[in-house]
Predict the structure of Glycosyl hydrolase family 13 catalytic domain-containing protein.
Amino acid sequence: MEQPITEYSMRHYCGGTYRGAIDQLDYVVEMGFNAIWISPIPSNTDIETIYGVGWHGYWQDNIYQLNKYFGQEQDLINFIDEAHKRDIWIMLDVVANHVGPNVTNNYYVPFNKSEYFHQPLCLIKDYSNQTE
């Protein structure tokens, strides 16, 4: 039975792994698609914050580790190999301009010093102001 969408569920992992995606590749082909755009693959902040957790892939905390919630390295390799066997391209979303919210000291090299982040947290209030 499908669970109702809640504020909590929208800000946390809801499933989906590379191994699970392999099982759906034939269905993707049947729908006529030839590319899949996947979330960024680095490890993400997975502690509870006021913003939720980094389920979406844009709060990387270690660029040298894969996101454990999506699977292991070999799972990703197998997913790509299986997709290519079906002439499906895999597009990897890469986020080079930011990491997770500065709510932890668990960031790894090269993001392991607080002076590498905007201090204090600078939220945009006026999106028409380009200097903000």
